[in-house]
Amino acid sequence: MQTLKDDIKQRILVTAREEFIAHGVKCTSIRTVARKAGVAVGNVYNYFGSKDELFCEVLRPLITALDRYIQSHNSEWHLSLEVFSARRFQDEYILAMKTFVINFRPELRLLLFNAEGSSLAGYKEKIIEHQTKIGTEYLQLMKERYPHLDINISPFFLHIASSTWMSIFSELVEHDEFDEQEIECALEQYAAYSMAGWRELMKVWADEFKYIK
């Protein structure tokens, strides 16, 4: 019986995902989801109390992965001066961005551009706030490890930097007409541009990298 219930719930989620992606939140109805999933409308409400709850459940894997992706910025691996110079960190950043967008592009489009009428509307601002908070924590963690670093960075600048990252992320999601080579080139240039700026702001000097290969 539990297996049957799980199967019904999964059918509802799969169908709802397709409908939300195709039509957005406002133009998707529970009645249509139920019909296409082959269940009664009342059965949908047995699993999900509202359309908004169903929508949030459809996007839960994306939001969980997005949070994990942003949190990874402050991992032990990134608490090194080498992040400002070593190519492997730049390559990791580019691969992570590309992979995330490829794996979740339909859901990201839904969350970032078509979530009006749901509790997830305006989620871009939440991502920016979260990214700003993570960035502030990162500066503190780096200062603890490298006391000579200057982390007197304007909170408003951190917000601007996070907004810029969100804009780039949104462009990657929205525009799939560019081929992989063009996307990689753009990300490489942004990474180089960004790192040069952070080196200057945090007073990370070139002689600190002379032994870094």
TrEMBL record:
Superkingdom: Bacteria
Domain HTH tetR-type residue range list: 6-66
Pfam families assigned: TetR_N
Keywords linked to the UniProt accession: DNA-binding
Secretion signal, residue range per the UniProt entry: none
Entry-linked PROSITE patterns: HTH_TETR_1, HTH_TETR_2
GO molecular function: DNA-binding transcription factor activity; transcription cis-regulatory region binding
Ranges of the DNA-binding region feature: 29-48
Keyword DNA-binding: yes
InterPro entries listed in its UniProt record: DNA-bd_HTH_TetR-type_CS, Homeodomain-like_sf, HTH-type_TetR-like_transc_reg, HTH_TetR
PANTHER family found in the cross-reference section: HTH-TYPE TRANSCRIPTIONAL REGULATOR RUTR, TRANSCRIPTIONAL REGULATORY PROTEIN
Protein name: AcrR family transcriptional regulator
